[in-house]
Amino acid sequence: MERGGCVNQRAAPSLTPEWELALQKSFHANPNIRCNDADYPVDDTQSVIKPAFFNAIGGSTIRWGAHFPRFRPSDFYPHTLDGVATDWPMGYDDLVPYMDINDQMMGVSGLAGDTANPPRSPRQYPPLASCEGSKRLIHGANQLGWHWWPADAAIATADSTTRRACNNCGPCGIGCPRHARASADTAYLAAAQHAGVELIQHTVVTRILTSTGQAKAIEIRTQNNEKFVIDLEHLVLAGNAISTNVLLSSMNDWNNPLLGKGLMLHPTAIVTGFFRDNLNSYTGPFATSIVSQQFCETEKKRGFVRGFQLQALRGQGPLTTALGGYGNPVAWGRSHAKGFSQAFGHGMSLTVTCEDLPEPVNRIEVSKEKLDHFGMPTAKMHYRLGSNTEKMKTYGIERARQWLRAAGAEKISVNPLSKQAGFHLMGTAPMGVSERDSVTAPDGRLHGVANITIIDASVFPSSSPVNPTSTLQAIALRAADLMARRLSP
Ligand code: SF4
């Protein structure tokens, strides 16, 4: 059951001249700006980073860059290694079989041999080609002696029966008409329906009804605003840290003081280098060039624990470049044409993606008194950067500058915090063995209501410095596998 509907990627706005306007409107990452029919408002007045997710079949993989790293072995033990957050109730090796299956389903391109990660199952596709901007960055990393590697990407680089090879057109974030870029719907839906899944679209679950420690039914509202109650035996929630919190808070006889607390967002700075030559940097999938995991692990002398990933972003389209892209807008007036021609195609950016710590003050608060237009309780994000993250980000910005200078950039601009980058919503219902220090069990089931399973990133006890989708999907497959073993003879 999904509050949004199917998005036909073959008709994605990527192919239209208005594709950059779509990025600012109906495909904006922020639901408060996008305001599509399926969206619900999120009060973000107390959050320095704004929410970013998509309501549709396929969820936020409808609007993503398809960067597909795996969490690394040390990401599962932040408490043992550094005395922060809590360790996961499972390790990297427990997830590898599910990561391997998921890689096959999503279709991943990449290159074996990355020295910063354990060996992975063979990638289905060879890595994306390096553009001129990536080559400059590779040169810079080699000068500095830093780790770099082609990004793992859920993007096909060769034709198959269902997908065509990426043609480097660029606007992956608003859909891929060639189906080169995978999304959860294109990867899984047909198989799920073949196995008996019935899909109900444009329908909002407004409440979970419980009795004696069991979920008994859900209350739903259809597109025509009709209300129904549906009985259930087992309920699986795959929302995000916001909507899962709203639904769990709707239960009258269940509560856990940890629910909603420890929201993690991957605070991200973006540092852009402009090169004298025209690199045509707007061509190619925007988020999947190369990455450096040189600074992912703790090194105490840096003054903070845990680490960050540096991820290269290619340049942006003409409208987005003029509006400032990842940095400052090109000045309007007489100097505009010159400023624009120096920026468009000339810039490569590096994100400083910081491992966030689960701090109780960063949280989702649900108000049962204030309802949205679907009759659902409303969510409010409280988020500010912790001091460890601030120090990490400052250090990371300097490293990004260093890399861009070594790569030959002549001008560097810094966006110290990408405010619209709340796309990795993690934590608030962390998994663990004991009900005292976690909300969900290691198999994703809710402590205290064992017939509810959560398979979104709410269950992450810590955040790693790398993008979460691959790990999140592996967690979902593992929960499904354990459920199948438990429920079928
Ligand atoms: S750049 Fe490649 S993956 Fe992205 S939209 Fe174009 S064809 Fe699809």
Shape: globular
How many individual helices? 11
Q: Share of helix among residues?
A: 10-25%
Give every kind of bound small molecule, once each: iron/sulfur cluster
As an assembly, this protein is single chain
Structural class: alpha+beta
Rg, alpha carbons: 22 Å
What proportion strand? 15-25%
| Strand order within the widest beta sheet | 2-8-9-10-7-13
Describe this structure in words.
It is a single chain. This protein has helices at residues 19-24, 31-34, 78-82, 92-106, 132-144, 184-194, 243-249, 318-322, 336-343, 387-407, 469-487; strands spanning 42-47, 149-150, 204-211, 214-221, 227-231, 235-237, 268-274, 290-292, 308-313, 347-354, 363-371, 377-383, 411-415, 445-446, 449-454. The chain is an alpha+beta fold. The protein has one domain (20-487). A hairpin with a 5-residue loop joins strand 11 (363-371) and strand 12 (377-383). The radius of gyration is 22 Å and the shape is globular. It starts with 18 loop residues before the first helix and ends with a helix. The model has no long low-confidence stretch (mean pLDDT 95). Iron/sulfur cluster binds next to loops.
